[in-house]
């Protein structure tokens, strides 16, 4: 019997591509700005300003990804997601396989007018696919307990709650993982 959490919804028509065309980084910055305003939390402990100014930075291929979701009919930007390689600090290694190749999903955001179209699901699936193709063993992410729709999405896509893998000073921080390779 299948788990009731396994959502079989398929994303509606959406095009996802690496942010590599002229103007794409500006579009990603717009997504990130709206996301951080919506989040309404101080994420300076993540060195967000340096990340924002240095895009694509750690999100550059081949070890990273900075993906934009677009409406295939209008070309409108619907949202974004990012992936970067992850090296854990010593205090977080005891919870993980020491030789595993890890990456982190960051900044999943869909503009409010595009919500309900399964754009987030398409972005999560694409970033997981690219992480596996890049040879990572595990993809990690952090989120906040107040972001219940995102948590439900992650669980429905096979992510499981895990021990912290990085510092997060925000109240209600939660950590998730998905194995990409069978051991």
Automatic annotation (TrEMBL):
MF GO annotations: acyltransferase activity, transferring groups other than amino-acyl groups
Superkingdom assignment: Eukaryota
Domain N-acetyltransferase: 14-181
Ranges where the record places region Disordered: 1-20
Bias type Basic and acidic residues, positions: 1-10
PANTHER family the record matches: FAMILY N-ACETYLTRANSFERASE, PUTATIVE (AFU_ORTHOLOGUE AFUA_2G01380)-RELATED (PTHR43305:SF1)
Protein's recorded name: N-acetyltransferase domain-containing protein
Organism: Clonostachys chloroleuca
